[in-house]
Amino acid sequence: MKMLALRCLVALTLLAAATVAFANPFKSKIISGDDSVLEIIVPGDHFMKITNFTQDGGTDRAVVEVTLPGDTENGGTTNVLTATRIDFSTGSNAVNFPEIDNRVTIAGPARVRIRPVVGAKLFITYKKERDEGSGGGGGSSPTPIPIFSPTPGVTPTPTLPPLPTP
Question: Does residue 79 sit in helix, strand or coil?
Fold first, then answer.
C-alpha cells in the first residue's frame, strides 16, 4: 500500500511540475493616478495580447500608446486601445449601457506605454508570446487539410475471373 501511495505522489508531482512549466501566464498591472508611466517593450520576435484594459474614475480616458521603431509618420506614436470605463454609481450619474471591452494584439518590435490618469485607477491584463510563425512567409508550407465529401465517389465492384469451359 505504501508503494502505491508513493507512486501516486510521484505522478502528481510530475503533473504539477508540467502544469507550472507549460502555463501561459498573463500579467496584470494596476496603475494609480500618481504612478509613473508603464512602459512595456515587445521584442521583434514576440507579440503582445492585451485582453483587459479598464478604468475606474477620472475624467480623461486612458489609452494604450504604441511606438514602432522607424515610424516617423504621425509623430511615431499612435493610440491603439482606450480603456473601458467602470462606473459603480447610481442615480443621475449611472451609466445606462455597459461599454464593450476590446482586445488588441501588438506585433513587435514595439514600445507600449500607458500613462496614468489623475483620479483614476487603471487595470490591464496582458501576455507576451513568442511569434512562432515568423520568417518572412517563405519558411514553411501550409499543411493540407483533408476534404470529405458527403457524396460518395465511384466504388469498384469485385468480379470473378472467367471460368474455363470444357
Answer: strand
